[in-house]
Amino acid sequence: MRALIYGGGAVGLGIASCLILSGEEVDIIAREETVSALRRDGLGRTGIFGSVEFGPEEFGAYASLDDLFLDESRRLRNGGVNLHRDHDYVLVATKSSGSEGAAADLSRHPEILAPAGNIVLFQNGWGNAEIFAAHIPKERVYSARVITGFQRKRENVVDFTVHADPIHLGSLFDADLTPMVPLAEAISRGGIPTEVVEDVGKDLWAKMLYNCALNPLGAIFGVPYGDLAEVEASRELMGALIREIFSVMEAAGYETHWSTPEEYIVFFHERLLPPTASHESSTLQDIRAGKTTEIEALSGAVVRLGEEHGVPAPTNAALYRMILFMEAKSPLKAKGDG
């Protein structure tokens, strides 16, 4: 198996570590500073699934798809042997805000995929699959639901912080799921339990419920998930967010694994929050780093879908706008570093 990780943030490096550990061939597309660190010091991972280090010779690291092809061409010229093989999987681990650019970039390089190769989206939020399906045949676009916490300790080191449930792989377009089986097995061998499922759409909406209830509030208050469950006021806010999302989801014709918001709220507090109580949301991490958050594909997606179907979501809308304000007023962005 040859896999390309498109996006070298915490999630991308975490999944890359699993595939390298399982013996697969891995290339990583990342920012230049990350590529420099990976090429110099290799890839390290720490945390709940154990510590491991990979030397820079054990994978490829590139700043762009063009750089990857140039490197393959150089090896061809120098060695006289064509070492380039199409990738069986491209795992997209960019932020949802980068979906349009990533989809366009990959569509300009169709040779990156083997004839039977597929794209798998390891992204937060709702709407990413539709963006990619506008550029790439939808039967080759798959989605991953991830409820594992990743944090980058350094440019080339990822820390696995929490794990609530296996990664789920599936299709929103009723595509054949057989190609996902080898990928699920490889990621599982590398440390994170992974399963292929028929109803990944339900899983993605479950993740939306989880993220939209926790991420904006965690960022606004500057606290980990568990703190939000300890105060009645924040519990009420999370309940309001969840009830609105259920209304929007049902009006749009989607469903998840729980029939009512009250049923989900019980599961949320009893089963989902406890193992992730110490985790700080990616939204909070992005705000601190002066980066653009994924709020557009989270609360923003709920608000827009609600407007489309005539269902108001005022609590989600208020937090969505608060996060946009925090992004705009980030001290790091004010300095031009965002």
* Class from helix and strand fractions: alpha/beta
- What is the CATH top level name of the largest domain? Alpha Beta
Helical content stands at: 40-55%
Mean pLDDT: 92
- Which fold does the CATH topology of the largest domain refer to? Rossmann fold
Q: Give the full name of the CATH homologous superfamily of the largest domain.
A: NAD(P)-binding Rossmann-like Domain
Largest sheet: 10 strands, mixed
Number of helices: 14
Strand content: 15-25%
- 3D shape: globular
* Sequence of secondary-structure elements: EHEHEEEHEHEHEEHEHHHHHHHH
Number of strands: 10
Structure description:
The protein is of the alpha/beta class and 338 residues long. The protein folds into two domains: 2-197, NAD(P)-binding Rossmann-like Domain (Rossmann fold, 3-Layer(aba) Sandwich), CATH 3.40.50; 203-334, N-(1-d-carboxylethyl)-l-norvaline Dehydrogenase, domain 2 (Orthogonal Bundle). The protein contains 14 helices and ten strands. Strands 1, 2, 3, 4, 5, 6, 7, 8, 9 and 10 form a ten-stranded mixed β-sheet that branches. Helix 7 (200-221) crosses helix 13 (314-328), helix 9 (232-251) packs across helix 10 and helix 9 packs across helix 12. The protein starts with a strand and ends with a helix.
